[in-house]
Amino acid sequence: MLRYLTAGESHGPQLTAIIEGLPANLPLSIEKINHQLWRRQQGFGRGGRMRIETDQVKIGSGIRFGETSGMPVTLVVENRDWKNWEQRMAIEGNPPDDLEIVTKPRPGHADLAGALKYNQTDIRNVLERASARNTATLVAVGAVARQLLEQFQIHVYSHIVELGPIQVGPVEGTIEEIAARAEQSQVRVANPEKEQEIIKLIKNVRKEGNSLGGIFEVVVTGVPFGLGSYAMPDRKLDSRLAGALMGIQAIKGVEIGMGFDAARNFGSDVHDEIFYSPEKGYWRGTNGAGGIEGGVSNGQPIVVRAAMKPIPTLYKPLRSVDMRTKEPFEASIERSDVCAAPAAAVVGEAIVAWVIAAAFMEKFGGDSLQETRANYNNFVSMVKDR
Ligand SMILES: Cc1cc2nc3c(=O)[nH]c(=O)nc-3n(C[C@H](O)[C@H](O)[C@H](O)COP(=O)(O)O)c2cc1C
Ligand SMILES: C=C(O[C@@H]1CC(C(=O)O)=C[C@@H](OP(=O)(O)O)[C@H]1O)C(=O)O
């Protein structure tokens, strides 16, 4: 079983992840993990914190001479901002005399619900972990999962399909071409005509002190038949993908394939007819199902979309109530992202890669990459002529 845990606060010394259940002898490149961390920090609309951080992973265990040993892998990403917070976020000792505690909950954040749930008078103890800073660890974990998937020619891509009120519209080309254009874009859109329009919108929204969300699409190619199961709801690949994507900060909706649009169309326009040819095996002319039927991967690309709400911290303050005085106040802030949907798309890719890798290991198992590959090859040849 492939599993992971993460720990770490936004302004603490470091973020940590432990992955357990990777097969032995899997080549793992730190450079590839760092590349994914870099991608997550990009995107027009991010705030001052991104100018402080340059995320790099440190491996603490489970890898020797560039390959996994089959033992738990520890990943650490240090917070550069920690040096500015050492007093206020000290692990030991007493709080400094001049410590300003946070008593003003921000609408759209975990602040109020978290302070009441964990009985905290200083909301900092809530926001530090609720912050999307820990999406850096998710991306590091996903970057490891991707390297396992790449061994089996499974690839994960993303692009932005809507940003605030702007629809990117139909995009031309293969999945790989669309992804390559998104990769070049400052806002991860595959349609270059829309890029400038979106950047202008983000600039205006920033000027107005407001914020934006967006919708991104993640596509996975090369997924074999048979990941996930209809045996139980929690084993369905679609339920696992939706749950994992909803676990990313600010994600409020997930669609698989046609998603909500399936409900607006006739059955004949939604379901993907089945064809067979000796060269291609079973094939489909459409992919309304987004590569999953009955909670099981059906050999088509997996297509999922996730909706991110606008960033909740606004320069134009929203009304709230001080938890100490119960007096109303209007929040003032020092820095925030205005739009982080392009970054969220990279986090989405990571978490999707993780779910696919976990389902892959569940199906094929194996304690070494060689054993996993033998099991995979065996299944592929078993279903080839069926
Ligand atoms: C990549 C990324 C960056 C984010 N940056 C900010 C930010 O700078 N300011 C902010 O208020 N919220 C930011 N958020 C959103 C909040 O973390 C999130 O809305 C909050 O933790 C509440 O969680 P919920 O929206 O899932 O309910 C970001 C989210 C993501 C995915
Ligand atoms: C640090 C990251 O994102 C942060 C997520 C975040 C939030 O409230 O979720 C608030 C901001 O941090 P700060 O409060 O330090 O300015 C973002 O920069 C990151 O993505 O690495």
TrEMBL record:
For this chain's record, the cofactor binding note is:
Reduced FMN (FMNH(2)).
Molecular function (Gene Ontology), one example: FMN binding
Q: What are the binding positions for NADP(+) in this chain?
A: R40, R46
Q: In which pathway does it act?
A: Metabolic intermediate biosynthesis; chorismate biosynthesis; chorismate from D-erythrose 4-phosphate and phosphoenolpyruvate: step 7/7
Q: Which residues bind FMN?
A: R129, A130, S131, Q249, A250, G294, K309, P310, I311, P312, T313, R335
The protein's superkingdom reads Bacteria
Q: Which GO terms describe its biological process?
A: amino acid biosynthetic process; aromatic amino acid family biosynthetic process; chorismate biosynthetic process
Protein EC: 4.2.3.5
Alphabetical UniProt keywords: Amino-acid biosynthesis, Aromatic amino acid biosynthesis, FAD, Flavoprotein, FMN, Lyase, NADP
Role of this protein: This reaction introduces a second double bond into the aromatic ring system.
- Quaternary state and partners of this protein? Homotetramer.
The name on file for this protein is Chorismate synthase
Question: Which gene holds the coding sequence for this protein?
Answer: aroC
